[in-house]
Design goal:
Blueprint lengths: L1 H10 L20 H20 L1 H15 L7 H25 L40 E3 L2 H9 L3 E7 L4 H12 L8 E7 L4 H6 L7 E5 L5 E6 L3 H9 L1
Parallel strand pairs: 1-3, 2-3
Antiparallel strand pairs: 2-4, 4-5
Length: about 240
C-alpha cells in the first residue's frame, strides 16, 4: 500500500494541475495500521520539502488529483487526505528552517495554576501545570500529562481532543461539546490538547489533523481516532 501510494503521487505529477478540493472524510475511522502507514511516509515528505519546496507544491497538487479516484469514505482517500494535510501544514515551516541561519534566543516563562474545567472558549483558558497530589476531574478539562494519568487511575475512558486555536471548526466543535457535556456518560472524560503545543502527544497517537479525537482504553492505549466536525452528536455516536 505504501509503495503504491508513493508511486501514484509521484507518477501523477506530470499529468497536469488539479483544482479538486478535499472533503473531510468524517465517515471513515482510521485504524492504528492506517496511522502507522501515514507516519512511515511522513519522513519522505520532510526530505522532499527540505530539498525542494517547489516540488512539494507539485506533490500537493498531485495528491489532490489522486484523491479523485477514491470515494470520500474509503481508506485510500483518508490516507491521501492525511498526507496532504501533513505536507500543507509543514511546507512553510520546513522552508523557513532551511533558509534561517541565525539562531534566535528563546525565553521560557513557566506559570503554575490550578486545573480548570473548560467552560467556554470565549474565556481565557488556563493550562494545568499543578503539582498537587489530588486533582478534581470534570467532564471536559484541559490536557496535561498529570491530568491524563489521574483520569486513567480513576478508571475513566479518556478522549483527547486535539484543538488548534486558529481553527474555526475546532472552536465550533469544542464549544458544542462543552455546552452539551451533561450528555456525555459519567465514565468518560474529554481532555483538550493544544494541537500546536503537544507535538510528542500528536506523534504518539499519529495525529495529523486538527479536531482529531483520540479514544483511549483504560490503560491509556489508543483504541481508535476520528475527526469530529459535528460536535456532541458525532462524539456520542463514536462513544457507542
Amino acid at each position: 500500500m505504501k509503495h503504491l501510494l508513493i508511486a501514484g503521487i509521484f507518477g501523477i505529477i506530470g499529468l497536469g494541475a488539479y483544482t479538486h478540493g478535499f472533503s473531510t472524510p468524517s465517515t471513515y475511522s482510521a485504524t492504528s495500521a492506517d496511522m502507522a502507514l501515514i507516519q512511515s511516509i511522513q519522513p519522505s515528505i520532510d526530505r522532499i520539502l527540505v530539498a525542494d519546496a517547489a516540488r512539494g507544491q507539485q506533490i500537493l497538487t498531485a495528491i489532490q488529483g489522486l484523491s479523485t479516484r477514491y470515494s470520500v469514505d474509503t481508506r485510500e482517500y483518508y490516507i491521501l487526505w492525511a498526507l496532504y494535510d501533513y505536507m500543507d501544514s509543514n511546507i512553510n515551516k520546513v522552508s523557513q528552517q532551511v533558509v534561517s541561519t541565525t539562531p534566535v534566543a528563546q525565553t521560557t516563562t513557566t506559570t503554575t495554576t490550578a486545573p480548570t474545567p473548560v467552560q467556554n472558549h470565549s474565556q481565557t483558558m488556563t493550562q494545568d501545570t499543578s503539582n498537587t497530589d489530588t486533582l478534581q476531574l470534570d467532564t471536559y478539562m484541559l490536557y496535561s500529562p498529570k491530568m491524563l494519568d489521574t483520569a486513567i487511575e480513576a478508571g475513566l475512558q479518556v478522549v483527547i481532543n486535539f484543538r488548534a486555536a486558529r481553527c474555526p471548526t475546532c472552536k465550533a466543535t469544542s464549544d458544542d461539546i462543552i455546552d452539551n457535556q451533561d450528555l456525555i456518560p459519567e465514565w468518560v472524560i474529554i481532555l483538550e490538547a493544544d494541537y500546536d503545543k503537544y507535538i510528542d502527544l500528536k506523534d504518539k497517537y499519529w495525529v495529523t489533523r486538527q479536531t482529531t479525537f483520540v479514544f483511549l482504553d483504560k490503560n491509556g492505549e489508543m483504541v481508535k481516532q476520528a475527526r469530529l466536525t459535528r460536535g456532541i452528536d458525532q462524539l456520542l455516536e463514536e462513544l457507542k
